[in-house]
Amino acid sequence: MDHKIDILQPAIEAVLAGKIQLLVRDRGELTLTVKATDYLGVCATLRDHADLQLEQLIDLCGLDYSSYKDGAGSPYTEGPRYCVVLHLLSVSKNWRLRLKVFCPDDDLPVVASVNEVWAAANWFEREAFDLYGIVFEGHADLRRILTDYGFIGHPFRKDFPTTGHVEMRYDAEQRRVIYQPVTIEPREITPRIIREDNYGGLH
Q1: Is the distance from CB of 156 to CB of 132 less than 8 angstroms?
Q2: What are the contacts of 158-161 at 24+ separation with CB within 8 A?
Q3: Is 164 exposed, middle or buried, given 0-12, 13-18 or 19+ CB atoms closer than 10 A?
Q4: Considering the entire predicted model, what is its pTM?
């Protein structure tokens, strides 16, 4: 696959000159980062330009980099919190590209919808909206897709509690499903390792 990247990398550098924030080649993969203001136009170019032809969207997801701020040496210690990542494929040229765009505002993360560029983005963008609260401007039907009706919050955000805010159960007296505050109490679990004598040939 490296010989494909040898062709794709200079093509991206030539076609998208001035719009590349970062272009990283690592472990046989190419990752392009662009600004939110250039994102939609770059996507159309990646799809339509004869030298690129990345006509298929394989995946789109959100990321929350907030916990990276605690890690020494992380490249995201001072950067935006939310990111959208796309994986693109050129069927005609048989190469792949990872595209990243960071949402400029942590309080209201917004990037353009690419649903008009790749129709497959529709449900992926709804998932990222549901799980991370990332708003895709221009999406024709941006609503939750995985969580329950009336769900509050975005469960893949790093500051969302692992137990959630409410729990639901069937109430036999009311004969319906009800919602109530979470009754799970956090506890520390220390695993025990029990091995037989001579386990793995050890004495």
Answers
A1: yes
A2: 158/64, 158/66, 158/67, 159/66
A3: middle
A4: 0.81
Decide: 177 and 171 in contact? Cβ < 8 Å. yes
Reference 109, options 138, 90, 132, 79; nearest CA is 132
Distances, alpha carbon 76 to alpha carbons 27, 69, 70, 82, 158, in Å: 20, 6, 10, 10, 15
Distance (Å, rounded) from C-alpha 134 to C-alpha 111?
Answer: 8
Query: What string of pLDDT tens digits covers the 203 residues of the chain?
Result: 578 999 999 999 999 999 999 999 999 899 999 999 999 999 999 999 999 999 999 999 999 998 776 554 455 556 799 999 999 999 999 999 999 999 999 999 999 999 999 999 999 999 999 999 999 999 999 999 998 877 888 999 998 887 777 887 898 999 998 888 887 776 777 777 766 777 666 65
Residue 187 belongs to what H/E stretch?
Answer: none
